[in-house]
Specification:
Elements: H1 2-6, H2 15-91, H3 98-148, E1 155-162, H4 171-174, H5 180-217, H6 223-230, H7 250-265, H8 274-296, E2 299-302, E3 305-308, H9 317-320, H10 324-327, E4 332-336, E5 339-343, E6 354-355, H11 361-366, E7 370-371, H12 379-390, H13 396-439, E8 456-463, E9 466-467, E10 481-482, E11 485-496, H14 506-509, H15 522-534, H16 543-551, H17 561-574, E12 585-591, H18 593-599, H19 605-613, H20 622-628, H21 635-639, E13 641-648, E14 654-660, H22 661-666
Parallel strand pairs: 5-7
Antiparallel strand pairs: 1-8, 2-3, 4-5, 4-6, 8-11, 9-10, 11-12, 13-14
Length: about 675
């Protein structure tokens, strides 16, 4: 500016000064534009390299999502299948649940078979995907570089994974298939045993109801009603029960004990005639005998089943001859001129001689003692006591005999039921063992997802010579030329903590839903699978809840076969010891390439620069670029669509999980 000042007057500029100033400004402007253009073209290759590295790492991140989805599906399908099979086994032992239990069992078996099919397809699919991952990453970066260029500017490059080899391990996919055959066979045996037990329980319930009807359940006359009318026992000794379910068989025995004690203690002749007093004596002895029978009897549930020692009371003279009433020497005798004579009591008017010893009713019929000509007391008098009240409904003994006979049949039915329970428990033990053995296939360590590129991706990008556009050429600035240049960038995966809405399964889960159109329990099992899939991160917490949901509550009391099997099934499921899974998203971030090189198998920085120089800046063929950096890739790889797994669905159909490698070149990868 000092030259311009020589031409200027003080406090003013001449026309010459103004012209020179304008020319200087234009020269500076065009120089600045050229510098900016040059720096932009020089730095653009680094931007392209950063984008290529991130694109490569994003492809590796997609693999993590695919692999985690496959493992989550395999685990949740296995758990859903086993929970359904376990619920089906338990359901066969729950009255009224048998039809649903069969459907549940079949759906659970189908789910486990689908899980086996999934494992077979997924194991092969993931191996193919991992083998193609380095090429997919490289192809994706190459395509991205090609898209970064313009009309006068082009980029060529690729991305390399570090390391190139896999260290993944999927125990669930590589382990043995779940043996469903043994569970099916054991379930069939359990079903047969459960059916036998069901019939035995129905028979027991019917016999118990018959005994209850005789005791207090029959409309009109029954033991409870007759005891109330014919005795004065207290209400608490003569309770009523509205149902055989709430009624206990020993309630009838306690009622009979109270009734016969009262009748014995309060028995009195209805008149003063010899016949009235003889009848009263017979009744009193009968009531005493009946009180002794019911007092000595046992009616109760024992450790090995129902215990019943209650025998029917005699109902007529013939029955009396089979009891101690006929053989016990309890009757008074007197020494008469015609011989020793039996009387209903010492006060009999016919007892005129000296008192003799006691005699039995059988002695009269045997001719060892004589029948009194006055009272004519004998076994027929004793037989008429039960005959009168056993043959018609208004007698207590009529209903008591029905109760006693029903109780005898109930005891036999309970014996059959106990035997059926033991058989069912044996079948349940076999089913439980088959369940545990098959479940062992799930008892494995969690997968190790370590694909190629797990430590990061390194991008190599070059750009050829480029000259400035004609519009930038002028008298003020010459043409700008930027020579060939290259850049190296690296990206690695960083974990983003998982949330309910933001995790590796979030997008996949939206496709797992039940439309309510599947047959039987398949819809419920599919819903269970979805719930367990949601709980994949910590699946063990949902197992017990899922089993209760399917059963609608407990399988039975702890003492029942169902309760015993429930504890075993739950113990086996909870004993899996499943470790929680990290569902954090893996997101690509730029990093220092030295960190990736230090952990990968790409060689030194010098070797990497040598690979960079081998890329032709003018190349537009991704195959040439990949081969230049040491990747041998066939055209078929880019067009391949790998079916990572086919997920069979209960009720038919599959949900394919596919990866199109060609999409990595144009759109950044796709898995569906």
């Amino acid at each position: 500016m000092s030259g311009i000042e020589l031409l200027a007057e003080e406090a003013a500029y001449t026309t010459m000064v103004a012209a020179v100033t304008i020319l200087a400004v234009l020269a500076l402007l065009f120089s600045s534009v050229s510098a900016v253009w040059s720096m932009a073209r020089s730095g653009g290759v680094q931007v392209a390299a950063d984008a290529a590295a991130l694109a490569g790492a994003n492809a590796v991140s997609s693999y993590y999502t695919v692999a985690t989805t496959v493992d989550a599906t395999v685990l949740s399908m296995g758990l859903a299948g086993f929970v359904s099979v376990g619920a089906g086994m338990l359901g066969t032992l729950i009255p009224g649940m048998e039809p649903a239990a069969h459907d549940m069992l079949d759906s659970g078996i189908e789910m486990l078979q689908a899980r086996n099919e999934l494992c077979a397809s997924a194991s092969e699919g993931l191996q193919k995907l991992e083998a193609g991952l380095p090429f997919a990453v490289a192809a994706r970066a190459t395509g991205l570089c090609r898209q970064q260029g313009g009309e006068r500017l082009s980029y060529a490059g690729t991305a390399l994974v570090a390391p190139r080899t896999s260290d993944s391990y999927f125990p669930a996919l590589e382990g043995p298939a779940i043996d469903t055959g043994s569970m099916e066979l054991a379930s069939e045996e359990l079903d047969e045993a459960a059916e036998r037990l069901r019939r035995a329980r129905e028979k027991s319930a019917a016999e118990k109801e018959r005994a209850w009807l005789a005791d207090c359940g029959r409309d009109g006359m029954n033991m409870q009603e007759r005891a109330d009318r014919l005795s004065g026992i207290a209400p608490d000794q003569n309770p009523d029960f509205a149902s055989s379910v709430t009624w206990a068989p020993e309630a009838g025995l306690r009622r009979a004990r109270a009734y016969y004690r009262w009748r014995f203690e309060h028995e009195a002749p209805v008149g003063n005639s010899v016949e009235d007093r003889a009848d009263s004596a017979a009744r009193k002895v009968f009531y005493e005998y009946a009180a002794g029978v019911v007092e000595a009897a046992r009616v109760e549930e024992g450790e090995s089943g129902f215990v019943n020692t209650l025998e029917p009371l005699p109902r007529n003279t013939d029955d009396v001859r089979e009891t101690p009433l006929y053989t016990d020497a309890r009757w008074a005798t007197s020494i008469e001129a015609a011989g020793t004579t039996l009387h209903y009591a010492p006060s009999c008017p016919g007892a005129t001689g000296a008192p003799g010893g006691g005699a039995a009713l059988c002695d009269v019929e045997a001719g060892r003692v004589r029948e009194c000509e006055t009272c004519r007391f004998g076994v027929g008098d004793m037989g008429r006591v039960p005959a009168a009240s056993t043959s018609i409904e208004n007698g207590f003994e009529y209903h008591f005999r029905s109760y006693t006979l029903a109780l005898r049949d109930y005891a036999a039915a309970r014996g059959e039921e106990h035997a059926a329970e033991e058989h069912a428990k044996g079948s349940a033990e076999g089913a439980g063992s088959a369940f545990e053995e098959a479940l062992a296939a799930l008892r494995s360590e969690r997968p190790r997802i370590a694909p190629p590129g797990r430590y990061g991706c390194v991008a190599l990008v070059v750009s050829g010579d480029v000259s400035s556009a004609g519009e930038l050429s002028s008298s003020f600035a010459s043409d700008v030329h930027v020579g060939a240049r290259g850049a190296i960038s690296a990206a690695a995966l960083a974990r983003d903590p998982a949330t309910h809405e933001n995790n590796v399964l979030a997008s996949f889960l939206s496709s797992i839903s039940s439309d309510g159109g599947l047959p039987g329990m398949a819809d419920e099992v599919l819903g269970l699978w979805g719930r367990l899939l949601l709980a994949y991160g910590n699946a063990s917490e949902r197992i017990g809840e899922a089993l209760d949901d399917l059963l609608g509550g407990s399988a039975g009391s702890p003492d029942s076969v169902g309760g015993w099997l429930e504890e075993r099934v739950m113990g086996a499921l909870n004993g899996l010891g499943l470790e929680p899974v990290d569902l954090s998203l893996c997101k690509p971030v730029l990093t220092d390439s030295a960190h990736v090189l230090a952990r990968g198998d790409l060689g030194s920085a010098a070797e990497l620069q040598k690979r960079l120089r081998s890329i032709a800046p003018t190349s537009s063929d991704p195959m040439d670029i990949l081969r230049a950096v040491g990747y041998e890739l066939e055209e078929a790889v880019l067009s391949a669509e790998i079916v990572v797994a086919r997920i069979p669905l209960p009720g038919g159909g599959t949900l394919p999980l596919t990866v199109r490698l060609g999409d990595f070149v144009s759109e950044g990868g796709a898995a569906s």
